[in-house]
């Protein structure tokens, strides 16, 4: 899937809005409206595909983060008597914080 430049698309929509505010006739309003509608129709499917791909990616990373926290939880239980390495503790706290499971 080709990624869209969503910032550029948003800027184009803002340009349409600016053109519409500056228009001086109903005919010009109509032309701008048709251009905006065509632009949005052409891009809508791509925007949705990209949003779905980003959600799938976020879900994948959340799943991996949960697995990491689970592995560290198990490790923590196993080495509880020996202490917990400071660097590993920081990784664990960061992963837990990102999941909001604190």
What is the distance, rounded to the nearest whole angstrom, between the alpha carbons of the first and last residues?
Answer: 36 Å
Give me the secondary-structure category: mainly alpha
The average pLDDT score comes to 82
**Major sheet summary line:** none
What proportion of the residues is helical, as a percent range?
Answer: over 70%
Strand content: under 5%
Low-confidence parts: none
Number of strands: 0
- The dominant shape is rod-shaped
| Element pattern in H and E | HHH
- Tally of contiguous helical segments: 3
Radius of gyration: 24 Å
Number of domains: 1
Detailed description of the structure:
It is a single chain. The protein has helices at residues 6-22, 26-78, 86-99. Helix 1 (6-22) packs antiparallel against helix 2 (26-78) and helix 2 packs across helix 3. It is rod-shaped. The chain has one domain (6-99). The protein is an all-alpha fold.
Protein traits:
102 residues; mainly alpha; 3 helices; 0% strand
Give a quick summary of the entry.
With 102 residues, the protein is mainly alpha-helical. 82% of the residues lie in helices and 0% in strands. The radius of gyration is 24 Å and the shape is rod-shaped.
């Amino acid at each position: 899937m080709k990624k869209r430049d969503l910032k550029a698309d948003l800027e184009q929509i803002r340009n349409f809005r600016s053109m519409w505010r500056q228009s001086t006739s109903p005919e010009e309003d109509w032309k701008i409206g048709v251009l905006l509608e065509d632009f949005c129709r052409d891009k809508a499917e791509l925007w949705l595909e990209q949003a779905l791909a980003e959600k799938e990616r976020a879900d994948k990373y959340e799943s991996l983060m949960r697995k990491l926290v689970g592995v560290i939880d198990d490790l923590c239980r196993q080495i509880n008597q020996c202490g917990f390495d400071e660097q590993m503790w920081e990784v664990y706290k960061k992963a837990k914080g990102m999941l909001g499971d604190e």
